[in-house]
Amino acid sequence: MSETILIVDDEADLRKLLDFNLTAAGFRTVQAATGQEALSRVREETPDLIILDLMLPDMRGTEICRSVKRDPATRHVPVLMLSALGEEIDRVVGFELGAEDYVVKPFSVRELVLRVKAILKRISTSSPVEEADELSFGPIRIDRTRHRAWIGEDELKLTALEFKLLSTFVARRGAVQSRERLLEEVWGVDAGVTTTRTVDTHVKRLREKLGPTARFLETVRGVGYRFAESPTHD
Known about the structure:
The chain has helices at 12-24, 35-44, 61-70, 88-96, 109-124, 160-171, 179-187, 197-210; strands at 4-8, 28-32, 49-53, 79-83, 101-104, 134-137, 140-143, 148-151, 154-155, 176-178, 217-220, 224-227. The chain has 234 residues and is an alpha/beta fold. It folds into two domains: 4-124, Response regulator (Rossmann fold); 129-227, Arc Repressor Mutant, subunit A (Orthogonal Bundle), CATH 1.10.10.
């Protein structure tokens, strides 16, 4: 069965263009011109991927992304954002909300279709071990189904991206994660799309929220980061 792509954009011509090219590539498409229509579509039939314009007539695309990623029933659905805003801070905000990719208008439709294929392929080949619903490491507990994490009895207030980053580190504890790999697998982008400084910035914020347990998150100079293999880490 073909994957279903939800196209959310208020420009009818662009929706038609994307529909034509995605259908030609073997996908099934559904469309929405407003934020409310998009949320209804998501509830009616959970799509395999959402192409989401950030500037809609009734609400911001960031609010739609936040809603999708907060709902346990849809948080697994990848979001590819479309925007005329191409500054690094705009991309960072999109990735913080949990978006898998960010494409700046105007764009190559062919490239966008390739990005859609790459995201879906990456998701279909992800390790089932790393997708365990619950993770624990010493005082750290992670519930992926409810998108919540705790240190002891205290719940961590994490952004969608920080939650994904922490889950990745804990699931792969003991293994070095390069900045490039984190960009590809946590942010869902190639290193060329944004700078590796983005990773450092988010790791710094995550460490601040982890408090004393931040000692488990080690910097591997010149490579990336590694979460300690054992909670008895000194």
